[in-house]
Amino acid sequence: MAEKVLKGIAASDGVAIAKAYMLVDPDLSFEKTTVSDTDAEVARLHDAFDASKAELKVIKDKAVENLGEEEAEVFEAHITILSDPEMLGQIEGKIKDDKVNAEEALKEVTDTFISMFEAMTDNAYMQERAGDIRDVTKRVLSHLLGVTLPSPALIDSEVIVVAHDLTPSDTAQLDRKYVKGFITDIGGRTSHSAIMSRTLEIPAVVGSESATTDIKEGDTVVLDGINGDALVAPTDAEVADYQQKAKDFVAQKAEWAKLKNEATVSKDGKHFELASNIGTPDDMDGVLDAGSEAIGLFRSEFLYMNSSELPDEDTQFEAYKKVVEGMNGKPVIVRTMDIGGDKELPYLPLPDEMNPFLGYRAIRISLDRDDIFRTQLRALLRASHYGQLRIMFPMIATLDEFRKAKAIFEEEKAKLVAAGTPVADDIKLGIMIEIPAAAILADQFAKEVDFFSIGTNDLIQYSFAADRGNEQVSYLYQPYNPSLLRLIKHVIDAAHANGRFTGMCGEVAGDQIAVPLLMGLGLDEFSMSSTSVLKTRSLMKKLDTKEMAKLADKALNECVTNEEVKELVEKNVFGK
Ligand code: PEP
Ligand code: MG
């Protein structure tokens, strides 16, 4: 038997066996002390600065090699801060004048810089520096305290990353060549770390509760992302079993791959659009490998998160153009920036909030900071010339928000047209249905928007009042609950009554129990991680929509619980 077996939430299919890499911040706490030999303390400070710079240089070179120039820019910015004589001079001054230890002087001075930059609300560039200074301070402090900060960009052998949680920016730094899987303490199936793992096509288990305490650096770990298990220090027999399971999974994938160039048509001949969700243009390989018919969700905020400052119009234009051209005329839905909730930008500090998921996020930020929004819309408008680009707004709660966003879009479009810039004139504008208020009013929205895309990750979180990243309430993630299915039906029917189409880009769209029901409800487009596309096409081709409509009717009107619906589908579709 393995030394330990951990159980978590299966977040991304596949099996991996490798050594553990602990992506856990060390304890950086310290006491304020008085020093008598201030020269020695200043020398200690200089050593820590030099060591940090040397370390950042190595990380930067490695990041350029593994991840690309753009991802490595943040490290160059950190080296620049460390080379600034002003900050170093002030810390030295504090050590000499106040006779405090270097750790305390560093903290006091950098805190002042951070507050100063954060207060520059009219200068986004300076505001962005606050996050960099915070990161740099952590690094210098680690050298003063003689502890090591983990540097995921330096990973150069196959590992399974173990972390309490993975922020989207941590995940963006992981090199998929070496990171074979990851396991976290917290998070649910729709937390962003889980979604990223599916995009990166690496097996993942989230919400294991104790991965960072039960696993040690270098332990051999078997990670089963199909069932949500992790084995620490497995026996030879267990390793052999899981190697077989990994092989079976690869064989199954090869079967699905045969459907790559086929259309997604049900048994009775109805065509559905099967699409991919992506985060960056780098995910295009997965989209093409899966033979997706569209991109149903381009989470554009990843362009912002993978950058050390607000991406400018040209940078964004290039990214959108690449994706639109890559799809060769097939539809690409780009969602405008969805920052906030659990997605932060180090360079755009958001207010501290009691409930970030209910706070300042997504379209609310875009309408408030229309400078950022206009830049994004201009980049999108310019890219629209190169293919079939559609735009959708995240977290719309009221028609008023949609109207305001649309008006800004029209203004920017008119300006570009007046300047002679080519833009497509038939760009469809849609909204995400993530907030129950919008779902309920879908019949009115449908008169003004071109399409809906149902974001079940948030729609479930808001309908059941259950934080999507909190494993303690993960039992309330009930994708088959008749209440949710009725809400979805209402949205689809409202769209169809007005000649609009409805897609779904939340995780439910690729859920094999939900897919038959959604076909029955008449969902037009299913958008999911590329890794789920072929599996879903294989399932959809076997099903008859009229039969699925009857099944959906039963689920909505005769079933009462999530479990009952699940059993109904398992029995009738999968013969279980
Ligand atoms: C959703 O909420 O379902 C969605 C697709 O958006 P995200 O997961 O990025 O919040
Ligand atoms: Mg969402």
Automatic annotation (TrEMBL):
<keyword id="KW-0808">Transferase</keyword>
<dbReference type="InterPro" id="IPR036618">
    <property type="entry name" value="PtsI_HPr-bd_sf"/>
</dbReference>
<keyword id="KW-0479">Metal-binding</keyword>
<dbReference type="InterPro" id="IPR040442">
    <property type="entry name" value="Pyrv_kinase-like_dom_sf"/>
</dbReference>
<dbReference type="InterPro" id="IPR000121">
    <property type="entry name" value="PEP_util_C"/>
</dbReference>
<dbReference type="InterPro" id="IPR036637">
    <property type="entry name" value="Phosphohistidine_dom_sf"/>
</dbReference>
<feature type="binding site">
    <location>
        <position position="335"/>
    </location>
    <ligand>
        <name>phosphoenolpyruvate</name>
    </ligand>
</feature>
<keyword id="KW-0598">Phosphotransferase system</keyword>
<dbReference type="GO" id="GO:0008965">
    <property type="term" value="F:phosphoenolpyruvate-protein phosphotransferase activity"/>
</dbReference>
<dbReference type="InterPro" id="IPR050499">
    <property type="entry name" value="PEP-utilizing_PTS_enzyme"/>
</dbReference>
<feature type="binding site">
    <location>
        <begin position="457"/>
        <end position="458"/>
    </location>
    <ligand>
        <name>phosphoenolpyruvate</name>
    </ligand>
</feature>
<keyword id="KW-0670">Pyruvate</keyword>
<dbReference type="InterPro" id="IPR023151">
    <property type="entry name" value="PEP_util_CS"/>
</dbReference>
<feature type="binding site">
    <location>
        <position position="458"/>
    </location>
    <ligand>
        <name>Mg(2+)</name>
    </ligand>
</feature>
<keyword id="KW-0762">Sugar transport</keyword>
<keyword id="KW-0418">Kinase</keyword>
<comment type="similarity">
    <text>Belongs to the PEP-utilizing enzyme family.</text>
</comment>
<dbReference type="Pfam" id="PF00391">
    <property type="entry name" value="PEP-utilizers"/>
</dbReference>
<dbReference type="InterPro" id="IPR008731">
    <property type="entry name" value="PTS_EIN"/>
</dbReference>
<dbReference type="GO" id="GO:0016301">
    <property type="term" value="F:kinase activity"/>
</dbReference>
<dbReference type="GO" id="GO:0046872">
    <property type="term" value="F:metal ion binding"/>
</dbReference>
<feature type="binding site">
    <location>
        <position position="434"/>
    </location>
    <ligand>
        <name>Mg(2+)</name>
    </ligand>
</feature>
<dbReference type="InterPro" id="IPR006318">
    <property type="entry name" value="PTS_EI-like"/>
</dbReference>
<keyword id="KW-0963">Cytoplasm</keyword>
<dbReference type="Pfam" id="PF05524">
    <property type="entry name" value="PEP-utilisers_N"/>
</dbReference>
<dbReference type="Pfam" id="PF02896">
    <property type="entry name" value="PEP-utilizers_C"/>
</dbReference>
<feature type="active site" description="Proton donor">
    <location>
        <position position="505"/>
    </location>
</feature>
<comment type="function">
    <text>General (non sugar-specific) component of the phosphoenolpyruvate-dependent sugar phosphotransferase system (sugar PTS). This major carbohydrate active-transport system catalyzes the phosphorylation of incoming sugar substrates concomitantly with their translocation across the cell membrane. Enzyme I transfers the phosphoryl group from phosphoenolpyruvate (PEP) to the phosphoryl carrier protein (HPr).</text>
</comment>
<feature type="active site" description="Tele-phosphohistidine intermediate">
    <location>
        <position position="192"/>
    </location>
</feature>
<dbReference type="GO" id="GO:0009401">
    <property type="term" value="P:phosphoenolpyruvate-dependent sugar phosphotransferase system"/>
</dbReference>
<dbReference type="GO" id="GO:0005737">
    <property type="term" value="C:cytoplasm"/>
</dbReference>
<dbReference type="InterPro" id="IPR024692">
    <property type="entry name" value="PTS_EI"/>
</dbReference>
<feature type="domain" description="PEP-utilising enzyme C-terminal">
    <location>
        <begin position="253"/>
        <end position="544"/>
    </location>
</feature>
<keyword id="KW-0813">Transport</keyword>
<feature type="domain" description="PEP-utilising enzyme mobile">
    <location>
        <begin position="156"/>
        <end position="228"/>
    </location>
</feature>
<dbReference type="InterPro" id="IPR015813">
    <property type="entry name" value="Pyrv/PenolPyrv_kinase-like_dom"/>
</dbReference>
<feature type="binding site">
    <location>
        <position position="468"/>
    </location>
    <ligand>
        <name>phosphoenolpyruvate</name>
    </ligand>
</feature>
<feature type="binding site">
    <location>
        <position position="299"/>
    </location>
    <ligand>
        <name>phosphoenolpyruvate</name>
    </ligand>
</feature>
<feature type="domain" description="Phosphotransferase system enzyme I N-terminal">
    <location>
        <begin position="7"/>
        <end position="129"/>
    </location>
</feature>
<dbReference type="InterPro" id="IPR018274">
    <property type="entry name" value="PEP_util_AS"/>
</dbReference>
<dbReference type="InterPro" id="IPR008279">
    <property type="entry name" value="PEP-util_enz_mobile_dom"/>
</dbReference>
<keyword id="KW-0460">Magnesium</keyword>
